[in-house]
Amino acid sequence: SAQQIWLAGLGAFAKAQEEGGKVFDALVKEGESIQAKTRKATKAAAAPEITAATEAATAETATTAKAAAAELTTATEAAAAETTTAAKAATTKTTAGKGWTD
Question: Is the pLDDT of residue 67 over 60?
C-alpha cells in the first residue's frame, strides 16, 4: 500500500542517515535506475497503442473528410444547377418580346 511504501522510504532514509552518505547515495542511484527502466518499459509498451490510436484517428479523419467533400460537391452541383436555371429564366424573360430566341 501507499502507506507501506512511504514507511519503507522513511526507514531507508533513516538507515542512510545512520550509516552515512554512501548508503543514501547508493539508494538514490538505485532509485534513478529503477525509474529509468520503468519509463523505458512504459514507453515501449505504450508505443504500439499510440500508433494504433493515431492510425485509427487518421482513418476516421480521412473518412470524415471524404464525406464532407462529397456533400460539398453535391451542394455545389445543386447550386450550379439552380444558378443555370435562374440565368436561363432571366435570359428568357429579358429576350422575350425582343424577337430573340435561345
Answer: yes
- The answer to whether the beta carbons of residues 102 and 92 sit under 8 Å apart is yes
Q: Considering the entire predicted model, what is its pTM?
A: 0.41
Grid look-up 435562374 returns: 86
Q: Is the C-alpha dihedral spanning 45, 47, 49, 52 positive or negative?
A: negative
pLDDT > 60? residue 70: yes
Long-range contacts of 64-68 (CB under 8 A, 24+ apart): none
Please tell me the predicted confidence (pLDDT) of residue 97. Answer: 57
DSSP assignment string, 24-39:
HHHHHHHHHHHHHHHH
Ramachandran sector of residue 94 (left: φ over 0; alpha: ψ -120 to 50; beta: rest): alpha
